[in-house]
Write a structure and sequence with these properties.
Blueprint lengths: L5 E16 L10 E19 L5 E7 L12 H12 L5 E8 L9 H16 L6 H11 L3 H6 L2 E5 L4 E4 L6 E7 L6 H11 L12 H9 L2 H5 L3 E2 L2 H7 L2 H11 L4 E4 L6 E5 L2 H14 L4 E7 L5 E2 L7
Parallel strand pairs: 1-8, 3-4
Antiparallel strand pairs: 1-2, 1-12, 2-4, 2-5, 5-6, 7-10, 7-11, 9-10
Helix pairs in contact: 1-2, 2-3, 5-8
Bound molecules: adenosine-5'-triphosphate (ATP).
Adenosine-5'-triphosphate binds next to helix 1 and helix 2.
Organism: Kribbella sindirgiensis
Pfam family, one: GHMP_kinases_C
GO molecular function: 4-(cytidine 5'-diphospho)-2-C-methyl-D-erythritol kinase activity; ATP binding
Length: 310
């Protein structure tokens, strides 16, 4: 692909259908076995070439703009810096992120912005990196970033960065109750370590019934196969989320679970119609900051076709 002066990449949020967490490694990371699914809740990252200098800037718009840093701690900026340094790029980039994924919500918002930026800068700067090379850089940026590149449904091992595609049939309908405020992922892992005696913690593993449920494409089978080892820790830090989960179940959700490290609550609906009904009930209940609905699985970070205007 030839380089372009402007590229927009659409990148999805992730959920964890199963998240099994092992005891912390000597480097502090927890080994996980997780089944990710990419859902149709997207951030769009637009990258515009700066030919005259090597500066990297970022602006944020959308629902959660005020919660996102615009300095070098922004994961999208770090992704651009990484490629620029690794491949001696002289040019810079102006990034604009339109955010619809909740920040610190357990849906990998920052990670997916980083994945989108890798894809965008690869095109913008004409680097011609392969998918494998992009995956390698994604893993340097964070545990969830490689999955955000590939999307669909995948098994994540190691810190979550070793991804393998998982067979999944059909489309599932999800509803998200987005809480006020975020939860820090490291805080949730610390709480998990505090809550469980380490000597009893086994190596992480994915439940076989989760794989069968995905193959069957049946939401009823998936509902009983979901799991999240971080849920108890997230609920310990934010007990009110338990009531939100129960409310969704009372309104007909097939299953309710904390998304990743939380505090977003996710609900599996039987079909798209039930998802709409559940979303309305949740929104009217006033229990959360906002409610979103999305289908999964969807692909990972993808370049959007340029809109040609006359
Ligand atoms: P994960 O599910 O991968 O653990 P998360 O969804 O809980 O992550 P993020 O939305 O990625 O959390 O945000 C975590 C922190 O990262 C935020 O508090 C924010 O300050 C910082 N951050 C850096 N870059 C970004 C970005 N592009 N978008 C959102 N947050 C970012």
């Amino acid at each position: 692909m030839p380089p372009s002066a402007e590229v927009t990449v659409r990148a999805p949020a992730k959920i964890n259908l199963g998240l099994s967490v092992g005891p912390p490694r000597p480097d502090g990371f927890h080994p996980v076995a997780t089944v990710y699914q990419a859902v149709a809740l997207y951030d769009d990252v637009t990258a515009v070439l700066r030919e005259d200098d090597g500066e990297i800037s970022v602006e944020i718009s959308g629902d959660f703009a005020d919660d996102v840093p615009t300095d070098e701690t922004n994961l999208a900026v770090r992704a651009a810096q990484l490629l620029q340094a690794e491949y001696d790029v002289d040019e810079g980039v102006d990034l604009t992120i339109r955010k619809t994924i909740p920040v610190a919500g357990g849906m990998a918002g920052g990670s997916t912005d980083a994945a989108a930026t890798l894809v965008a800068c690869n095109r913008l700067w004409g680097l011609q990196l392969t998918q494998t090379e992009l995956q390698h850089h994604a893993a340097e940026l964070g545990s969830d970033v490689p999955f955000c590149l590939v999307g669909h449904t995948a098994l994540g091992q190691g810190r979550g960065e070793q991804v393998t595609e998982v067979m999944s049939r059909g489309t599932f309908h999800w509803v998200f109750a987005i809480a006020d405020g975020g939860l820090s992922t490291p805080d949730v892992y610390r709480e998990l370590d505090r809550m469980r005696p380490l000597r009893r913690v086994e190596a992480p593993q994915v439940r076989p019934e989760l794989m069968s449920a995905l193959l069957s494409g049946q939401p009823g089978a998936l509902a009983v196969a979901l799991s999240n080892d971080l849920q108890a820790a997230a609920l310990s830090l934010r007990p009110e989320l338990g009531e939100t989960l129960q409310f969704g179940l009372d309104q007909g959700a097939l299953a309710a679970q904390i998304s990743g490290s939380g505090p977003t609550c996710l609900f599996l609906a039987a079909d798209s119609r039930s998802a709409v009904d559940l979303a309305v009930e949740l929104a009217e209940s006033g229990r959360c900051r906002m409610v979103r609905q999305a289908e999964g699985p969807v692909p990972g970070a993808r370049i959007l076709p340029a809109i040609v205007s006359r």
